[in-house]
Here is the input.
Amino acid sequence: MESTIQNPNILSIRKVIPEDLILLRNISIQTFLETYGWYNTEENLALYFSNDLSEETLKGQIDSIETDYFFVLKDDVPIGFIKIGLKNNPIQKWKEKELEIERIYILNEFQGFGAGKFLLEYSESIAQTKGITQIWLGVWEKNLKAQEFYFRKGFTQIGEHDFWLGKDQQRDFILVKSIE
Ligand SMILES: CC(C)(COP(=O)(O)OP(=O)(O)OC[C@H]1O[C@@H](n2cnc3c(N)ncnc32)[C@H](O)[C@@H]1OP(=O)(O)O)[C@@H](O)C(=O)NCCC(=O)NCCS
Here is the structure.
């Protein structure tokens, strides 16, 4: 699989490597705060950053063969990333392999000019090369902006499931997209 691709509009994509750990963590935390900081308590944010976004956790994910991170770069500077993995959605009894978009984060100031779409299309091309016909993701019920983005890109909702953000139980909508 190509680890670097380019489109004509100054955006490019490359695989995240172990040396990118701190940069990946910084973009993760900044985008998380920009998107969800208004809703969550300081305590729950701190728990999330020290567990789910700890250097150790992210390092394990970068090294894992089950997960791939890709940066999207503008003028060669990372402005966001996608995290994908081979995992089936929790709603359907889907027998074939599925690709999960585990995270897709674009820094606030770079949103709205195609970087998210570029990463999404890249993940779809990866799925297609693996013979996978459905991708899925969970999106927080209050994240209307991301939901608009996904619906516009052909996703439909098939259910919901709960998760914990620190000590707060929250709800994701589960969305799928056929890429046959
Ligand atoms: C959601 C997110 C990934 C979208 O990426 P983006 O780079 O801002 O979106 P793009 O510029 O690629 O937009 C792609 C398409 O979606 C549309 N779109 C994007 N945001 C939209 C919105 N809020 N409302 C309606 N349409 C929207 C664009 O108009 C565009 O449509 P087109 O291809 O038909 O022209 C990005 O905003 C983000 O990272 N948000 C913060 C983190 C987050 O919420 N991640 C998702 C967690 S599940």
Residues 31, 35, 104-106, 111-117, 139, 143, 145-146, 148-149, 152 surround coenzyme A (CB under 6 Å). The longest strand covers residues 168-178. Strands lie at 4-6, 11-15, 67-74, 77-86, 99-106, 134-140, 156-165, 168-178. The CA atoms of residues 26 and 164 lie 22 Å apart.
